[in-house]
Amino acid sequence: MEKYQQKTIKHEISCVGIGLHTGNKISMTLKPADVNTGIVFHRTDPAGQDAYIPAHHDYVVDTRMCTCIGNKDGVKVATIEHLMAAIHAMGINNMLIDIDGPETPVMDGSAVPFVFLLECAGTKVQSAPLKAIKILKPVTYKNGDKELTLQPSEKGLKMHFAIDFPASVIGHQEADLDLTASNFKNMFSRARTFGFLQDIEMLRSIGLARGGSLDNAILVNDNTIMNKDGLRYSNEFVRHKMLDAVGDLYMSGYTLIGEFSGSRSGHTDTNALLTALFADESNYEIVDMASYYSSLTEENDDDKEFRLECA
Ligand SMILES: [Zn+2]
Prior knowledge:
Blueprint (H helix, E strand, L loop, with lengths): L4 E5 L3 E6 L6 E8 L6 E5 L8 E3 L5 E3 L5 E3 L5 E2 L3 H9 L5 E5 L12 H10 L1 E7 L1 E5 L3 E5 L2 E6 L5 E8 L7 E7 L2 H7 L6 E3 H9 L12 E4 L2 E2 L10 H14 L5 E9 L3 H13 L4 E5 H22 L1
Parallel strand pairs: 4-9, 11-19, 14-19, 16-17
Antiparallel strand pairs: 1-10, 2-3, 3-9, 4-5, 6-7, 7-8, 11-20, 12-13, 13-19, 14-15, 17-18
Helix pairs in contact: 1-2, 1-5, 5-6
The protein binds zinc ion.
The site of zinc ion has 5 residues, from helix 1 and helix 5.
């Protein structure tokens, strides 16, 4: 069944944009890749020394303001989470990403330009079974008032996110997502990253947010949104945090069968949750999606027969 086969993109496709933190112009090309490759970044610029870096939690080297991966030679690619969210939601398993700088282009600060790129590239079904991580036991990570959990569930990846910010334009927001390509595309992909005016100077002093502008981020000043067109969703902030989590969870190397809940958490916490998940092999199982879901259907059929007998 095609649904449970691995997928790559049909054609390569490119885009150009600036890096949110470096402010540099970056070219990126998404390319089809063989089965079981996973998602791999490839630095094509001289400074990147032709490096390949898998988009995998083992390669995460910095999570201060974004998710940054690096290899043992110190070659890095930063701000991969919005692209990873689109790749996860669109169900792409194998892809090579050529990039000529240290950061993915920020585009408009959301994942929708990447969803559009992937749709234009098309999907190619491959001849290898699709696998997923099935959560077997609850796994929790807490850090102060931040808390994340993964819980077992029968089907798919269900997600919940909650945030609390003192700024009244944000305040308390919650959102739920049953992760499918259409749910993500229609309800979450357009949510932009956000920042606070009072943090910008500090971020720029440590070399971050240099490419940030009102064209690629929501900017909050005390209780005012500074973007003249306002918000894309009334709760755009929590939707963006959900989008980040969709991307960061895909750093596990697979999609998940389970329930995720995040409260006030960020990239560092989601990465720590994955570390906690993989620390104990009894927490999870790598399942072949086709046989896992067919076993569920068989069980349901058994139930039906049993009920008929009783009647
Ligand atoms: Zn983000």
